[in-house]
């Protein structure tokens, strides 16, 4: 299984892994404690049919080295570097957070353009059900208020275990409300607090025109991986499947969408989609093209076997462009990683899957 590849100067580095026993008795060798050979070859270019040098090396792959090093068991975050990150949710609300891996704590700085209350917290769903949050502000008499709260609906309740610890709260010269608060990754409050991990979650926020926390003038949510110093990186990839069809896809992790572009040497239809096992049954696909009068046709389908795919009741692949030129058909379309259609669509994850295609 491929992990990574880099090229620096005239040096190429590959990192990959495999099981001791892959289960492929025909093509793969079982790695055991017997003597075997590493074989290698390198080329001066990317034409794998020719090599510039090659060789073999006798080795016992599973043999302990002559000199052993005792490896200390360390914590999950011992190798991570602390960082500070800022996100401006809109023109009114900004949050900066300092991640302290050694103590497994986070310091949040929240500032909002309001003299009223500010609510800020975490929700795995992006909604108030459930949510782990704080609400604070400065009253007109200059006295502060602040509390760790939780929500299972549209109202909030003060948490009996106060695990978001206020460090500072004030109104700025611009009449903004600002507070600094610290909390552990895992507060130990399994009833009302959310454990902060490397998984994606959501910041949630709300602001009021005054100190009535039952009313807000604005609110929102923002998908984020709190323990990552940067946003996931978008990328574009291209594959020529064969001489008749090619596909490129642009992945936007922040918006959780993929834009596909398919070009095929046919004046007829294009079928393109996803399969978990490369088979027709369970396939999630689109079928589209351009009629002779230059009008496009396009629809989200699913397949239940070796028969014509059925049109999906939920249309979750969306056409962006279609054209036909010189007996070639081009389609550009978009879909979410997870459309929410558990019947007709396949969620796109980091796991392996198959592109499927057909031309008419």
From TrEMBL:
Gene Ontology process terms (BP): dopamine catabolic process; norepinephrine biosynthetic process; octopamine biosynthetic process
InterPro entries: DBH-like, DOH_DOMON, DOMON_domain
Superkingdom, natural source: Eukaryota
Pfam family, one: DOMON
GO molecular function per UniProt: copper ion binding; dopamine beta-monooxygenase activity
GO cellular component: extracellular space; secretory granule membrane
Domain DOMON: residue ranges: 1-43, 91-208, 243-360
Annotated coiled-coil segments of the chain: none
Protein name, as recorded: DOMON domain-containing protein
């Amino acid at each position: 299984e491929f992990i990574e590849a880099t090229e620096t100067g005239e040096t190429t580095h590959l990192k990959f892994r495999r099981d001791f026993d892959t289960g492929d008795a025909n093509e793969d060798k079982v790695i055991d404690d017997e003597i075997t050979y590493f074989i290698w070859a390198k080329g001066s270019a990317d034409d794998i049919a020719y090599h510039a040098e090659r060789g073999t090396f006798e080795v016992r792959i599973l043999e302990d080295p002559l000199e052993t090093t005792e490896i200390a068991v360390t914590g999950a975050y011992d190798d991570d570097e602390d960082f500070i990150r800022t996100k401006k949710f809109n023109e009114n609300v900004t949050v900066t957070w300092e991640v302290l891996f050694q103590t497994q704590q986070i310091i949040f700085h929240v500032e909002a353009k309001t003299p009223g209350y500010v609510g800020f917290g975490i929700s795995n769903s992006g909604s108030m059900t459930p949510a782990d949050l704080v609400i604070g502000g400065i009253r007109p008499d200059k006295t502060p208020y602040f509390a760790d709260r939780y929500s299972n609906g549209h109202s909030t309740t003060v948490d009996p275990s106060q695990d978001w610890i206020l460090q500072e709260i004030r109104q700025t010269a611009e009449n903004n409300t600002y507070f600094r608060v610290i909390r552990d990754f895992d507060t130990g409050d399994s009833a009302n607090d959310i454990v902060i991990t490397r998984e994606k979650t959501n910041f949630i926020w709300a602001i009021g025109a005054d100190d009535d926390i039952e009313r807000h003038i604005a609110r929102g949510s923002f998908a984020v991986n709190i323990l990552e110093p940067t946003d996931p990186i978008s990328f574009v990839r291209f594959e020529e499947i064969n001489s008749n069809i090619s596909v490129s896809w642009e992945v936007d992790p922040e918006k959780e969408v993929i834009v596909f572009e398919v070009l095929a040497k046919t004046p007829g239809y294009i079928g393109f989609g996803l399969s978990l096992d490369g088979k027709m049954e369970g396939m999630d696909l689109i079928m589209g093209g351009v009629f002779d009068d230059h009008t496009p046709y396009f629809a989200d389908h699913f397949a239940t076997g070796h028969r014509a795919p059925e049109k999906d009741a939920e249309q979750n692949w969306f056409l962006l462009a279609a054209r036909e030129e010189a007996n070639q058909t081009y389609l550009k379309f978009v879909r979410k990683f997870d459309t929410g259609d558990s019947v007709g669509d396949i969620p796109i994850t980091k796991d392996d899957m198959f592109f499927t295609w057909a031309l008419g």
